[in-house]
Amino acid sequence: MHDLASDINGVSDADRDAVATSVAGTLDGHSPQSDDRFRAVPEDFSEESAFMRGLADEAASMLEDKPASSILRWAAGVVPRFSVTSSFGADSAVLLHLVSEVAPEVPVLFLETGFHFDETLTFRRDLAHDLGLTVLDVQPDLSVAQQARRHGAELYRRDPDACCAMRKTIPLRRALANFDGWATGVRRAQTPERAATPVVEARPHAGRYLVKVAPLARWTEADVEDYLDAHDLPRHPLVDQGYPSIGCWPCTKQVAPGADPRAGRWSEFDGKTECGIHLADDGATVRRTTTPG
Ligand code: SF4
Hints:
Blueprint: H1 4-9, H2 13-27, E1 41-42, H3 46-63, H4 68-78, E2 82-85, H5 92-102, E3 108-111, H6 118-131, E4 135-138, H7 144-151, H8 155-158, H9 160-176, E5 181-183, E6 200-205, E7 208-213, H10 221-230
Parallel strand pairs: 2-3, 2-5, 3-4, 5-7
Antiparallel strand pairs: 1-7, 6-7
Bound molecules: iron/sulfur cluster.
The site of iron/sulfur cluster has 13 residues, from helix 9.
């Protein structure tokens, strides 16, 4: 039987059944087979992109209340070319440990902005080694010195959106051109902008729809702490020095105990809470920030 939704997005009962079968198999502990229905499609192929969105919505509703390990195993199985992004930040060890457990072959993309704390680079090296992960450094076009020559020193103080675009969003867009989907450690509880994060979505990204997965979307801070403790995983070394959220050093400040964990990110700029890599490509949700006066 076809309902209105299936007529709109082209997801037939057979497609729905296939998603249900792959989810059920995952919950039984199997790794589902790669599924071409989840291969990225060009954004302007309206029928195919609507189909992809419909499939992702279907998967999201089936996986919403499932364990993070199941969500990740399902995505790593069905999405033909799958990846994970990690900032190797405060609680990144959670998602990376899950990857090492259920999908160790999946590459981890690390945005090497050139502005990381030394502690982050050490943490990245040690954690990748301990968990047996393959980490790919995603590089910007310009070195830090080249960017300073072309755009002036300390662009991050004058126009952090431009700096984030050059050092994060554009390089990630280019890297993801080689993949059909990716997982992130985004959690709904982190910021108001992340509150509606689906566990699975079809995300327009550089002219294509890719499958984006957030296995930890429902997790609270307490869930994260419990997981780190239960698996004896390391926190980023700067957490103990008052940095509950860690990005590039020019845009990360210590915060007072009990304050909003992300209050130290771009703290000199009104309204900037995201670098842009988790925002939609449509521009409408990408805000310009207010430069400090
Ligand atoms: S977080 Fe700061 S230093 Fe890093 S890319 Fe964005 S603006 Fe530049």
